[in-house]
From TrEMBL:
Domain Glutamate/phenylalanine/leucine/valine/L-tryptophan dehydrogenase C-terminal, chain residue ranges per copy: 178-411
Protein name: Glutamate dehydrogenase
Similarity comment: family membership: Belongs to the Glu/Leu/Phe/Val dehydrogenases family.
Protein's organism: Novipirellula herctigrandis
Tree of life domain: Bacteria
Gene Ontology MF terms in the entry: glutamate dehydrogenase (NAD+) activity; nucleotide binding
Amino acid sequence: MRAFEATQIFFDAAAEHLKIDPAMREALLMPNREIQVQVSIEMDNGQLANFVGFRVQHDSARGPMKGGLRFHPKVDLDEVRSLACLMTWKTAVVNLPYGGAKGGIGVDPTRLSEREIERLTRAFVDQIHDVVGPDSDIPAPDMGTDHLVMSWFRNQWEKYHGFNPAVITGKPVEEYGARGREEATGRGVGTLTVKLVRRLGMKPEATNIAIQGFGNVGTHAAKFLSEAQFPIVAVSDVTGTYYNPEGLEVRELLRHTMKHPKGFIEGFEPCEVLPRDALLNLEDVSVLIPAALGGVITEENVDDIRAKVIIEAANGPILPQADIVLQERGVIVLPDILANAGGVTVSYFEWVQNRQHYRWSLDRVRQELDHTMNEAFETIWETAKKHNVSLRTAAYMIGIARVHRATELAGMI
Ligand SMILES: NC(=O)C1=CN([C@@H]2O[C@H](COP(=O)(O)OP(=O)(O)OC[C@H]3O[C@@H](n4cnc5c(N)ncnc54)[C@H](O)[C@@H]3O)[C@@H](O)[C@H]2O)C=CC1
Ligand SMILES: O=C(O)CCC(=O)C(=O)O
């Protein structure tokens, strides 16, 4: 199943509960605008290389569109469309004054040098600079991009439009970035994991966690949760699964990946090395945190999942058929549009600071982030109870209802 079809199925389930009529459903679901561009650069060896870039602007009823940039070989229009749509509901779930967008380039950044990634980023900005801006569409980091890519993006955009760091978030802290943006998604995942586990009557020390993906989100979630006394028994990245039933030494693990030239876990000890996807099926894992790609839990592998709780740190990790099976089995799923909303929340704080030429302390960022995440969690928990629906359907209902209301108030119908 393609990514956008999966998002549409989740959308339809919530729209049904909200009794939204078919024409309005279509208006809410279809993207405002989809941009596809050719991005050509000279590689370090002098050869020309061609890539395809995308920016999908899904909805702007609640404010400027917001969403990350993904550099990954699997990026295509369908995936970006699905991710842009998720951003619309996500910004609404945490009540930010934003709509949703997403972008990306079909490229494996681990095969490019830093200078090649810089040229690629600048060439992409050359193609899309006139459709993004601080009041229209504000990009940010996602898979395969980081603060450096944000910095090159801003610098190139400002060559056309002049100084305005609010054009992009997730920038380096010394270049108008917010303190706490880098950790924000992982921190939000951690905060809500602690909350949910306690709500379910489980004890952190007795709740084993496995995290798929050990990049920005996975590493910060692991750090937060190990500090909260959870045993992190397994983590994985593209190189494999690394398992220790006694709990991995997370501090050592972070030191190890920081030293690795590509940030990989390979070579870490002491642990057992298993095939990459083995992480999903470990017997002694209570909380599974997918924090890599979408579409990893499917009809084919869902029966092998042993966890009682799944926290969707990644966007779209569970396909709809698998979601139904998990619900029938009583597995609690904290959906992506809530679980990983910490990143866009602190992006909003960065944008606010940039617009005010002011800087918040890390303490203030963390306090406001925790408040936003906790408030959104309670709203969704109550909605799920009241309507007897899953946390996912409840989150979609909140997000869609807010966007629907903004659409009506704007007089678009
Ligand atoms: N960076 C952010 O602030 C936000 C990220 N997300 C989502 O979180 C997920 C991860 O994003 P980042 O951490 O930023 O990406 P990243 O590029 O920093 O890290 C990705 C990690 O996933 C691993 N990985 C890739 N394919 C894998 C596979 N098949 N099996 C196991 N590991 C695999 C990579 O080796 C790497 O460790 C994505 O779904 C992204 O959309 C969501 C909200 C915000
Ligand atoms: O920080 C942002 O603006 C967006 C992050 C993002 O792409 C996401 O939440 O999936």
